[in-house]
Specification:
The chain is α+β, with helices and mostly antiparallel strands and 425 residues long. The chain has 14 helices and 13 strands. It starts with a strand and ends in a 40-residue tail after the last helix.
Length: 425
């Protein structure tokens, strides 16, 4: 028998991160906003109970939130990213194999345990994560990934399960599958759900019991794997090693329109710096860089354009990427345009240890090593003292175009100056 699988998911992750470091908001309804304080993208359990809808624009809900005394927070990506890394590192010490699926959830292969010990193990994990990191989690146990996803959903929606649902050997499994609409299944999109509905397959149970020949005709091997997963036969292996990225994008909408060339250069330079840092974390180099800009699609005279530079030598050096990107900004800039978004796309990525040299581009090993040591030193200082501690001058000091985040919490885990202070008497 294959070892059981678990899907471990942090409940209301963004909202829970905010509550973990601010005792004053514990037990209070709380929402987290998207970029530029646009829409509600996360809600605490208390906010859900008030009926606050996901995706509601903040300007429409502001009066209601004030009336209900709801705590509002801007997205604190540095905090959420750091807490995600802490959660995954903690889980890695509890399970033999871990697949990080997203910022707040992971699939895990469980250690060898007796059947009656699985629920106890999951309950102990929930307590440990809450005590060590201050975050609530839900654990779904099953014999396949798709069923583990379903078990996790039941663990979060049924308070009687206390955050743990085990579908291994569950006599009511068919009843659970019958209550799940086919479009709510993991891996089923709009087109496939329409195909199922047209053939009378309206629930997960219908799909599990369907003729395999019919599923193969409509979905191919992907559909057969999903069907086998629903039947409890594991077909999707754990991906414990992250697949190398094919490209990396850095972009943000501006908090205020960008009208002049210099501000647009600063914005693109900021994205280039972030992109180069990502490449070094991913241990990759890029051989192709694209800069794109656009105005608001809701305004007259909409303008959008992009320009690409092919690098003769693949690199992760911030200075080299800035030299390639900034001339592209001058090409894309149009006087009179109110730019609302810009970004950088790094393509043709390759492993950093496999550098293909160029016959006409002289670069000695000593010169490359010196630049690599410089980039490593910059990254170490920014990791130790906080992002932006050591910055490139072209980025600017206090740009006006920065993202609107009027309700931003502190960088509790990423900035020394934001560490909470405790007064003992």
């Amino acid at each position: 028998m294959a070892p059981p699988l678990a899907l471990i998911d942090c409940n209301n992750f963004y909202a829970s991160c905010e509550q973990a470091f601010d005792p004053a908001v514990l037990g209070r309804p709380l929402v987290v906003l998207s970029n530029n304080d646009g829409c509600i993208v996360a809600r605490s359990r208390e906010a859900r109970q008030l009926g606050i809808a996901m995706g509601t624009p903040y300007f429409q809900a502001a009066d209601q939130l004030r009336r209900l005394d709801v705590v509002v927070r801007s997205s604190n990506y540095a905090l959420y990213g750091d807490m995600s890394q802490r959660v995954m590192a903690f889980l890695g010490r509890w399970v033999p194999d871990l697949e990080v699926y997203s910022i707040d959830e992971a699939f895990a292969r469980l250690p060898a345990l007796p059947p009656d010990g699985l629920n106890r193990w999951a309950a102990e994990l929930r307590v440990a994560v809450r005590q060590q990191l201050g975050l609530p989690i839900a654990v779904g146990l099953a014999s396949s990934k798709v069923l583990a996803k379903l078990a996790n959903r039941l663990a979060k929606r049924d308070p009687a399960r206390v955050g743990v649902c085990n579908l291994i050997g569950d006599p009511e499994l068919d009843a659970h599958l019958a209550r799940v609409p086919v479009e709510d299944l993991w891996g089923v999109g709009r087109r496939l759900s329409r195909w199922c509905r047209m053939r009378g397959l309206s629930s997960a149970l219908d799909l599990a019991r369907a003729d395999p020949a019919l599923i193969r005709q409509g979905w191919g091997v992907v559909g057969l794997r999903l069907q086998q997963e629903l039947r409890g036969i594991s077909c999707l292996p754990l991906e414990t090693v992250a697949t190398p990225k094919q490209d990396t994008c850095c972009s943000r909408s501006f908090g205020a329109p960008v009208l002049d060339r210099q501000s647009l250069r600063e914005a693109v330079a900021t994205h280039v710096v972030r992109g180069a840092e990502k490449l070094r974390r991913q241990r990759q180099r890029t051989a192709r860089l694209t800069v794109f800009v656009r105005t608001s699609p809701f305004s007259s005279g909409f303008y959008a354009n992009s320009a690409t530079a092919v690098l003769p030598l693949a690199t992760q050096d911030t200075g080299v990427l800035l030299q390639a990107a900034l001339p592209l900004v001058d090409h894309l800039y149009r006087p009179g345009c109110a730019f609302r978004k810009a970004g950088v796309l790094l393509q043709q990525l390759q492993p950093e240890e496999q550098l293909q040299h160029h016959l006409l581009q002289a670069a000695s090993p000593a010169q490359l090593q010196r630049r690599e040591r410089l980039m490593q030193a910059v990254d170490r200082l920014n990791r130790r003292f906080g992002a932006g501690t050591l910055q490139w001058a072209v980025v600017g000091l206090q740009p006006d175009w920065c993202m609107r985040r009027h309700h931003l919490s502190s960088g509790y885990t990423t900035r020394l100056g934001d560490l909470p202070l405790v007064q003992a008497r």
